[in-house]
Amino acid sequence: MSRPIPLVLKVGGRETDPAGGLGEVVAFVLRAQRAGREVVVVHGGGEEVTIRASELGLPTKKVDGQRITDRALLDVVIEVLAGRVNGRIVNALADAGAPSVGLSGLSGRLLPVRVAGTPPGSLGLVGEPTGARVRILRTLLDEGYTPVVAPIGTDQDGGVYNVNADLAAGAIAAALGAELLLVTDVPAIRDAQGQPIASLALSDVPSLLASGTAQDGMIPKVNAASHAVGSGARSAWVGSLAGLGDAGPRPGAGTRFLGPGRASIPLLPHRTREARR
Q: Which CATH number is associated with domain 7-276?
């Protein structure tokens, strides 16, 4: 009997808020599992990181959707994402009848990274995934658990890094041969005229980024989706919670990335907003 194609569901701060979309996320995971799909949840939580950092008097600065991270801010990221947010999602799933296990990218060295930024190190302690070691995820899925992963990675020397959750999800989806679902607060990626884009070929992505049409937090989503489908993921999708049906995206909802097999492509370079001006 062949194994079902897993879903890797990435959710952000709004979708992890009990007063926001957390209930909808849990409902989708349950629907997908009833339809026979295995689900891995990867989460962000940047708004809560920003709030906690502000409480501690730490400034927040981002470049193209990635948070510049020093040692003090890394401690906040670990506290909020691997602790508060991860535990909240695990408990919500368990309460709804989906036994779950909370992990970070440090668990089983799940998320190996190299130093991110252009030049490398310009973002501080931010890591760019070089792949994913998914044996621990397969073991949990085989036992009927839903893995919930906080995006923290480690390099070959054991250093700990903040990792963009979209890029983390993309690396995991590629390693699992999964369908990648990147949930955001907009219905789809939009073109320069503001119209939703139904699908993107990998060859379309460089011009989308170079033109500045994709900005801020959409840049890592586009990078994650394109890299994932070029590196082993079955497909990738960007859209809102409302675009999810019983076991995946609703027909016509969101933006789909369909890749040409399993040939690896590099993460696409992009200019910062300052450089585009």
A: 3.40.1160.10
